[in-house]
Amino acid sequence: MTVTQWISGEIGDQGSFVRQKNRFTTPFGQGEGALPVEAGRYRLLWSPACPWAHRSVIVRSLLGLDRVISLGTADPVRPKQTKGDWAFTLDKGGMDPVLNVKTVSEVYLNADPDYTGRFTVPVVVDLTTKQAVNNDYFNLTRYWETAWKQYHKQDAPDLYPEPLREEIDALNGVLFDEINNGVYKAGFARSQEAYERAYDQVFQRLDSLEERLSTSRFLFGDYITESDVRLYVTLARFDVAYYNGFLLNRNQIADFRNLWGYARDLYQTPGFGDTTDFDAIKKHYHLCAVATNPKQLLPKGPESSGWRLPHDRENLSRDPQRKFLPEQGV
Ligand SMILES: N[C@@H](CCC(=O)N[C@@H](CS)C(=O)NCC(=O)O)C(=O)O
Fold first, then answer.
1. Is 288 an annotated catalytic residue?
2. In angstroms, what is the span from residue 328 Cα to ligand 1's centroid?
3. For a 10 Å CB count at each end of the chain, is N or C smaller?
């Protein structure tokens, strides 16, 4: 099945891509009807290829939630079968070792045998039922930051500081529309107009972020916030996948002085680079996500060693030794 068929229900007027709504959106929390916050109860399924999943894995790692929420990793190259799926072919026996399932679709269908949407990552699975309980990629990071606070590690960063919440939410909305999902609107467009509209929007926003980052080490000043995580996951995929795979070829990120330094600064921060798998990203986008690649050729480049080069972004900070605002008492 081709990507055009997977997303066929998500093409709007004039050939533009309109993303499906999430099916499993029950929040984590204390209230009635909420998913109970409990150490060891859930498994997060991801593929390192996926930006939406990647951001939930970065935040999980920054907050130390990797000690209480386990992680299952699907192969970035998806099985070629009738319905799009993700498979655990990297695991021994082709089976997730904790859930004993071969594919992500199994946990969706355990929860809802009539589920007809796409089988997407990230998805959180309740180990007591083996059912998908949350695939709300937009809000998962928010749950890790707020509802899961009691399990944060001792020196956890505050990625969502109270005084900035409104501004962070507003910027996250723009980042979603014009950057994170903006690249998909270009790559999945089904008309020249829709593609060009998306292309222009992505690069206009990158230009304005380049400007913003000329005087500010991170998006909100001296410290990393959740907005940086959201921007990072798209920047990390840009040169290796979106530039050619999604036809976003005005510039590479490496052509922008500030964005490129900023992306390296984040990459070199534990939680970011150590969860970034360029090889998986490349394979997924070029072999599975692009509309046409009949000979299944994998681009050889780009060279990724530049991500480890010095960036000098510390000079923009009044607190060069620290990248995070510490969390207030839990
Ligand atoms: N859950 C969201 C976003 C997550 C998402 O799209 N993940 C991608 C990987 S980056 C996926 O799993 N796609 C599977 C598919 O399209 O069949 C959605 O439904 O659009």
1. no
2. 34
3. C
